[in-house]
Design a protein that fits this description.
The protein has 179 residues and is of the alpha/beta class. It contains 6 helices and 7 strands.
Length: 179
């Protein structure tokens, strides 16, 4: 039996919808675990990424912790995949980019509706927000982009199986749509 490839995943600034789509491959995940060992993923609950063949990241880069995780993945993964709209172009989190960080914090914590104790949090445990939300490729080199919000389970399945088999990745039209 050929050696399994190691795959790790992480979610940065996003909604976790891409990971839900990955889980939506349903029983095909049993076929996947025949050829893949999962390293850091929500499935394994491993917190640090080790040496991996493929790293899959969803979400944009919005804070210092996101930068750290992304750089760790790039360092440890032979192939890095930006999965979903947030990872490829910033997605919904990047909608805040039209405002300054100060404006966003003031609206969220001081002037927003229903605020009872106005105060911008300032705790060392809270990751420092970046001035803008960035797609992954603006921070590290990305090898593949898997678009969608989120990509469908079938698109993820096609991508992973063709990547694992060393085939050129080609999606049927029905798998790449934006509605």
């Amino acid at each position: 039996m050929p050696e399994k490839i190691k795959v790790a995943t992480a979610s940065l600034a996003g909604c976790f919808g891409c990971h839900m789509s990955l889980l939506d491959i349903d029983e095909r995940i049993l076929d996947l675990v025949q050829v893949v060992d999962f390293d850091r993923t929500p499935i394994t609950d491993i917190k640090k990424v080790g040496p991996c063949d493929v790293g899959i990241i969803e979400g944009g880069v919005a804070n210092a912790e996101n930068v750290e995780v992304l750089r760790e993945f790039r360092h440890h993964c032979k192939i890095l995949v930006a999965m979903g709209a947030c990872a490829t172009n910033g997605g919904i989190p990047a909608m805040r980019n039209q405002f300054t960080l100060e404006e966003c914090l003031r609206e969220s914590y001081v002037e927003g509706m229903g605020i009872e104790n106005p105060m911008v949090p300032n705790d060392a445990e809270i990751p420092l927000l970046l001035n803008k939300v960035r797609p992954l490729h603006e921070v590290v080199k990305v090898d593949y982009f898997l678009p969608g919000c989120p990509p469908s389970a079938d698109a993820i399945w096609t991508f992973l199986t063709e990547l694992i088999q060393g085939k050129p990745i080609a999606f049927p039209y029905t798998q790449i749509h934006y509605d």
